[in-house]
Structures are given as C-alpha cells and as structure tokens.
Amino acid sequence: SDADALMKSTHALKGTVANFHIESVVDAAKTLENLGRSNELDDALSKLTTLQSQVDQLIPEIEKLITQPAA
Asked: Do 29 and 58 form a contact (C-beta atoms < 8 A)?
C-alpha cells in the first residue's frame, strides 16, 4: 500500500540522516513515517514538501564533507 511504502522509505531515510545529527530532517522524516504507519495520508504531501526542503538544505553540507581533504 502507499502508506506502507511511505512508512518504510521514510524510516530508512530517517536512519540515514540521523547519522548527520540534523534533527530537523530526522523530525520531518519521522512525521512522514508516522503518517504512513497510521495510514493517514491526507497531510502527507505537505509534510513531504517540508522533508524535501530539509533534505535540500542538507545536501550542500554532505557535498562539503565529501570534497574536503582528509585531516
């Protein structure tokens, strides 16, 4: 189901971004995961927009980590 797919994908994303200790992204993913778990998809699109915005802010930080020389 869509709710199950939402729950599983955002759970995986939440675990990945938790490694970067960026709580706003983790919280946004957790919110979507919970919506999927409870099969409440009415608000999912707006929450997905929030998550996308948070991830968009995280990407440049990850790119910096990848391109900086090792200490």
From this structure: no
Rounded CA-CA distance 71/56 in Å is 26
- Rounded CA-CA distance 11/21 in Å is 15
Residue with tokens 């939440």: 14
Show Cβ contacts of residue 48 under 8 Å, excluding neighbours closer than 6 positions. 32
The 10s digit of each residue's pLDDT in 60-71 is: 888 888 888 776
**Distance between CA atoms of residues 18 and 36, nearest Å:** 19
Query: What tens digit of pLDDT does each residue of 24-38 get?
Result: 889 999 999 999 999
